[in-house]
Amino acid sequence: LVKEVPIPFNLSKNDRDRRGLPIPFIVYRDTLGVPHFTIDDVGKLNLVLAQGLCGLCGNPLQPGEMWMIGGPLSAFHAEGMYIEPPAHEECARYAIQVCPFIAASNYSRRIEAKTLKPAAIHDEARFHDNEIAPPRPPFFALTRTPVITLFPADDGSGKHHILPQRPWAVVEFWRNGAQIAQEEAETMAGEPAPGARAWWPA
Ligand SMILES: [Zn+2]
Question: How much is the pTM?
Answer without folding.
Answer: 0.86
